[in-house]
Write a structure and sequence with these properties.
- With about 120 residues, the protein is mainly beta.
- It contains no helices and eleven strands.
- Strands 2, 4, 5, 6, 9, 10 and 11 form a seven-stranded mixed β-sheet that branches. It has a four-stranded antiparallel β-sheet with strand order 1-3-8-7, with no helix packed on it.
- Strand 7 and strand 8 form a beta hairpin.
- The protein is globular and about 40 Å long.
C-alpha cells in the first residue's frame, strides 16, 4: 500500500507560480507512474500531468506552464506551476499507478488563483 501526501498549495495571484509536492511511502516508488489530477468545484476530476519511465505527458490546458518531475531518492513527485490562471483553481491530487491504472490517491491540496 502506498500512501501519498500532497503539500504546497495555497493562494496566489494570476500570473504567479506554485510548486506542489507529493511525498510517497514505500520502497518501490521509482517503479510507479505518478500523476497529478485536479478537481474544480462542480467539475469532474481531470488529468493534469503524468511521469513514468517512458517520459512525461500533460493536459493541453497546462502545456508550457506546468512541469512534472520526480526525485526517486526522496520518494517525491513535484508539479511546478507557472503563469497560473484563475481557471487553474482546484484541489490538486497526486496518484500512483502501474500499467495505466492508478491505485492510490492523496488527500489533495487546494490551489486558488485570484484574478
Amino acid at each position: 500500500q502506498v500512501q501519498l501526501v500532497e503539500s504546497g498549495g495555497g493562494l496566489v495571484q494570476a500570473g504567479g507560480s506554485l510548486r506542489l509536492s507529493c511525498q510517497a511511502s514505500g520502497r518501490t516508488f521509482s517503479s510507479y507512474t505518478m500523476g497529478w489530477f485536479r478537481q474544480a468545484p462542480g467539475k469532474e476530476r481531470e488529468f493534469v500531468a503524468r511521469i513514468s519511465w517512458s517520459g512525461t505527458s500533460y493536459a493541453d490546458s497546462v502545456k508550457g506552464r506546468f512541469t512534472i518531475s520526480r526525485d526517486n531518492a526522496k520518494n517525491t513527485v513535484y508539479l511546478q506551476m507557472h503563469s497560473l490562471k484563475p481557471g487553474d483553481t482546484a484541489v490538486y491530487y497526486c496518484a500512483a499507478g502501474v500499467r495505466g491504472s492508478y491505485f492510490s490517491w492523496g488527500q489533495g491540496t487546494q490551489v486558488t488563483v485570484s484574478s
